[in-house]
Amino acid sequence: MTSPGVSQFWGLYAREVLRTFRNPFVMLITVVQPFMWLAFFGSSFGNVPKSYLEALFGASNYIQFLLPGVLSTSMLSVGMFGSMSTIQDKRFGFMKRILITPTSKELIFVSKAIGAATRGLVQIPVMIAAAVVFGVPFVLTPVQWVAWVAALFFLAIGFSSLFLAITAPSTDWQTPGVVSNFITMPLMFASTALFPSGNFPAWMQAISSVNPITFSALLGRSFVLGRAVDWSYLGYLAIFAFGMLAIGYAVSARWLKVE
Which pTM was predicted? Predict the structure, then answer.
């Protein structure tokens, strides 16, 4: 017999996932946005000689280099949009209705974090298909595919938990969005998602060296480009995911509120 906690979790989790698929506009943006990164940003090096691309990026096709980074930054966006759903639930009364039931604050947080991460996984097959159209070959083993998806899922869980922790104590619907936007740009550009870190100034290299987006991009890039794989990157991302999940769990338990 299913326990009440499990039933509550699955109900909230299903709501988080289905609210995306029931909104054609949100679904369209979820799919098209990362594709546009590949089409526009990836094509910006289209006329650069392959020898220069090899020297700078270690790949004859910049999109080969860019794909793992774009997928990683997409997980950052997924986390931010997950916090936006919490703001909507507070503004329109759903959160208040849930909090007066026996459902725990921690369960609400976990269902939202995992739901947001699940929505992020939708982008992976779309991005892979787009990269194939742009001429990127894939020779990954099944283990590498699983590891890559797991790394992206860990990244999505970590950022969803971080942004939800920021949103939980706030009663001002504007503040979490401003804070999220403030965090997003430095994390994206101070990573190896778009460019190698070798030419970064020292302070950006320091940020990049602990930035989880860097580890996700490097792991995915090693698979796509056939480089030596450092499996410790996957462990780092797992620690990041569970660490942020624990912090968000504690913050939600103590400070999740509506008014």
Answer: 0.86
Structure letter (DSSP) for residue 3: -
User: Residue 192: how many CB atoms within 10 A of its CB?
Assistant: 23
Tokens representing residue 74 in the block: 């997409």
Task: Tell me the three state secondary structure of residue 67.
Answer: helix
126-139 CB burial, b ≥16 within 10 A, e <16: ebbebbeebebeee
90-98 LR contacts (CB < 8 Å, sep 24+): 90/171, 90/173, 90/258, 91/173, 95/258, 96/258, 96/259, 98/12
Using pLDDT thresholds of 50, 70 and 90, give the confidence band for residue 56: low
Handedness of CA 82, 85, 87, 89 (dihedral sign): negative
Whole-number mean pLDDT of the chain?
A: 81
Whole-angstrom distance, CA of residue 89 vs CA of residue 70:
29
What is the rounded distance in angstroms from the CA atom of residue 255 to the CA atom of residue 100?
Answer: 15
pLDDT tens-digit map of 205-233: 999 999 999 999 999 999 988 888 889 99
Residue 89 has pLDDT above 80, yes or no: no
Token pair, residue 236, equals: 């780092």
**Distance separating alpha carbons of residues 247 and 28, to the nearest angstrom:** 32
Q: How many residues does the chain have?
A: 259
Tokens standing for 82?
């997950």
Collapsing DSSP to helix, strand or coil, 151 comes out as helix
Residue 248 to residue 233: CA distance in whole angstroms: 22
Give the tens place of pLDDT for each residue, 234-245: 999 999 999 999
Residue with more model confidence, 172 or 114: 114
Report which DSSP code applies to 193.
S
